[in-house]
Design brief:
Blueprint (H helix, E strand, L loop, with lengths): L3 H13 L21 H18 L2 E4 L4 E6 L2 E6 L2 E4 L6 E6 L5 E5 L20 H4 E3 L5 E12 L2 H6 L4 H18 L3 H5 L3 H19 L3 E12 L5 H70 L1 H16 L9 E2 L2 E2 L19
Antiparallel strand pairs: 1-4, 2-3, 2-5, 6-8, 7-8, 8-9, 10-11
C-alpha cells in the first residue's frame, strides 16, 4: 500500500519545490506533470485578493432598509437607501435593518408560512398558554391578538438590549393580561374590544420608549375573543338571550318613538282648541261689552227712543218663536181672532 505522505509529496512537490525534484510528479501514463511557476500562483492569489477587495467595497441598501456601518465593531454611520462605499477586507461591516417594513407579532395563534420576525414555528394551531386569560369577574377568556410594529431607530434596536422582539412579546402579553383582568368578561367579549386595543398599544409603546428599544408600535388588533371551547354552548345561549333582550328593547323604543309624538300632537291640538275657544269667548265678551256701552250712550241721550227700539227688537226676536198670540184688554177677550203667527207666511222681502 502506498504511503499517503509520499503520494502528496509526489503530487505537489514539483509545484512548491518539495519532494523528488529530479523525477517530479508523474502522470498516470508514466510521463511527468508540468510544473506550475511560483509567480503564476502569486499572481492568482493577488487577483483573488483584488476581486475580494473590489466586491467588499460596495454595498446596497434597499428602500425599506437602513444600513448600520460598523468599523471594527464600532458604528461609524447609518446608510440610507442606495449604493454606498465602505472599507474592504472586512474592516467595515454592514448590518441591514428593515426600518420601513411593518412587522408583526402574533399571540395565541401563528400564521402558516408568512412571517418576517416571529418565532421559528409557524402553524395555525392555538397557543393556550398565550391566549387564555382571567377577566375581572373570574371568567376565563380566549384572547388572540396581533401587534404590528416597525423599527424606528436601528441603533437602539441593535444595541439597547439583546432581544428587543422578545421584550416586545413579554410586555405586550403582560399589558394585555392586565387590561383583560381589569374588566368584566362580558365587556371584553362585546363592547371593550376597541378600548382594550388602544390601551395595550399606548402602554406597550410607553414601555418600549422607556427601555429604548427603538421599536414603534403601529397598532394592536384583537382577533378572536371567545370563551373557552368547554363553555362555548352556554356562552352562545347567553349571547342569544342578550340579543333577544336587545331586540325587545329596540322594539319598545320603536313603539315609544311612534306613540310619544302622536300623544304630543294630540295634546298640542287640544291646547290649540282650548286657546281658540278662550280667544273666542274673550272676543265675544268684549263685543257684548262694547255693544252695551254704545246702547248706554244712546240711552243717556234719548231714553224713550232707545227703550222703544230695544222693546221692538226684542219682540222681533221672540214673537216668531211663539205659536199663538191672544190679545186681552182689561180681562176681556178681544173679538180679534187668534193669531197663528207660526203658520203665517212672511211677506215678500221679509226674513223667514
Amino acid at each position: 500500500m502506498n504511503d499517503p505522505r509520499k503520494t502528496v509529496e509526489n503530487l505537489f512537490g514539483g509545484a512548491f519545490g518539495g519532494g523528488d525534484r529530479s523525477s517530479g510528479p508523474r502522470r498516470p501514463g508514466g510521463g511527468q506533470a508540468p510544473k506550475i511557476p511560483l509567480g503564476l500562483i502569486g499572481l492568482g492569489i493577488a487577483a483573488l485578493f483584488a476581486l475580494w477587495g473590489v466586491s467588499s467595497v460596495f454595498f446596497t441598501v434597499q428602500p425599506e432598509e437602513r444600513g448600520v456601518v460598523k468599523r471594527f465593531g464600532e458604528v461609524v454611520k447609518i446608510a440610507d437607501p442606495g449604493l454606498h462605499f465602505k472599507l474592504p477586507f472586512g474592516v467595515d461591516t454592514v448590518q441591514l435593518v428593515a426600518t420601513e417594513r411593518v412587522l408583526k407579532q402574533e399571540f395565541g395563534f401563528r400564521t402558516e408560512g408568512v412571517s418576517s420576525d416571529a418565532p421559528s414555528q409557524y402553524s395555525s394551531n392555538e397557543y393556550p398558554d398565550e391566549s387564555l386569560m382571567l377577566s375581572g369577574d373570574l371568567n376565563i377568556i380566549d384572547v388572540e391578538w396581533v401587534v404590528q410594529y416597525r423599527i424606528a431607530d436601528p441603533m437602539k434596536y441593535i444595541y439597547s438590549m439583546r432581544e428587543p422582539t422578545l421584550t416586545l412579546r413579554d410586555i405586550s402579553e403582560s399589558v394585555m393580561r392586565r387590561a383583560v383582568g381589569n374588566r368584566l368578561g362580558s365587556e371584553v367579549l362585546t363592547t371593550a374590544r376597541v378600548e382594550i386595543s388602544n390601551l395595550v398599544r399606548d402602554e406597550t409603546q410607553t414601555a418600549m420608549e422607556r427601555y429604548g428599544t427603538g421599536i414603534h408600535i403601529v397598532t394592536v388588533e384583537l382577533q378572536d375573543v371567545v370563551p373557552p371551547a368547554a363553555v362555548q354552548p352556554a356562552f352562545n345561549e347567553v349571547n342569544e338571550a342578550r340579543q333577544e333582550r336587545e331586540r325587545m328593547i329596540n322594539e319598545a323604543q320603536k313603539q315609544a318613538n311612534q306613540q310619544i309624538p302622536l300623544a304630543r300632537g294630540q295634546a298640542n291640538r287640544a291646547i290649540a282648541e282650548a286657546e281658540g275657544y278662550a280667544t273666542e269667548r274673550v272676543n265675544q265678551a268684549q263685543g257684548e261689552t262694547a255693544r252695551f256701552k254704545s246702547i248706554l250712550t244712546e240711552y243717556r241721550v234719548a231714553p224713550e227712543v232707545t227703550r222703544t227700539r230695544m222693546y221692538l227688537e226684542t219682540l222681533n226676536e221672540v214673537l216668531p218663536k211663539i205659536g199663538s198670540v191672544v190679545v186681552v184688554q182689561d180681562g176681556q177677550m178681544s173679538p180679534v181672532p187668534l193669531l197663528n203667527l207660526r203658520d203665517a207666511k212672511p211677506a215678500a222681502g221679509e226674513p223667514k
